[in-house]
Amino acid sequence: MTPVATATAAEPRGVPVRDKAPGGRLGPVALVVTSGLSVQFGAAVAVLLMPRAGALGVVTLRLVLAAVVLLAVCRPRVRGYGRADWGTIVAFGTAMAGMNVLIYQSSSRIPLGAAVTLEVLGPLILSVVASRRWTNLLWAGLALVGVVLLGGGGFDRLDPLGAAFALGAGGMWAAYIVFGARTGRRFPQADGLALAMAFGAVLSLPLGIAEAGGRLLVPSTLALGLAVALMSSVLPYTLELLALRRMPAPTFAILMSLEPAVAALAGFLVLSQALSTTDALAITLVIAASIGAVRTTRAKG
């Protein structure tokens, strides 16, 4: 059984496998696109915050404040769930914390667009494995060409540690998709997201305190941290959870390949990170692979 097949197993308590909201296919796609815009512009703001609190401090602010907001709004119940349900929450929260820690460590070393282009290999590989279609291997190969171009043919233009962090974040992103789908089916509304966010916040808290200490409590830093939490966690993760209830996880994973373009745009507008012609071509290839894989999935679905 593939990871996605496991994630889409029958869920307890009558939580629907697909939301019956109007909009057909366009609805969940619009949710994913809106999520991508929010999370990447939030990531650009987070880069501006890093000199104040450090990469790990920003992750802690993002997860802790997002958890506070979600717990206050959702007020999730904690009784009536089994061991498998809580295991899913632990896995989902761990994936969220790991994904954020690694991508923030990466974006503090290499441009945001490059970091997300490397990170998106995780979801793309997941979509290929889960779909079991040879045509998607071609699209994955096209994306890989783009990644190699981005690294200058040997990744000599990118900080090696920053690139490694981005690839690790990609693995955590794939896990986030799998366990996010499972969480959406086991818990009503956004209750599972709130609980998983709280667990991820607890995991990140010692790291943030160790790096930033009292700087986390500076009012201006807290205000920027709240903005990052809302833009990069509360809004996008809620939208993605809704989308995962209404589209197959492989299709969702493929759509994630659009995020390098959004990240590059956010890096240019917010951080003044200019792209070379080669970088733009590399990101275009990854986006083309995403679009081609989505069209193939729909044509054969």
Walk me through this protein's architecture.
With 301 residues, the chain is mainly alpha-helical. It has one domain. The protein is built from twelve helices and no strands. It has helices at residues 3-7, 26-74, 83-107, 112-119, 121-131, 134-150, 160-186, 191-212, 219-244, 249-255, 259-271, 277-300. Helix 5 (121-131) runs antiparallel to helix 6. It is globular and about 45 Å long. It starts with a helix and ends with a helix. The relative contact order is 0.22.
Key terms for this structure?
globular, 12 helices, mainly alpha, 78% helix
Low-confidence stretches: 1-25
Class from secondary-structure proportions: mainly alpha
In what range is the share of β-strand residues?
under 5%
Largest sheet: none
Range of helix content:
over 70%
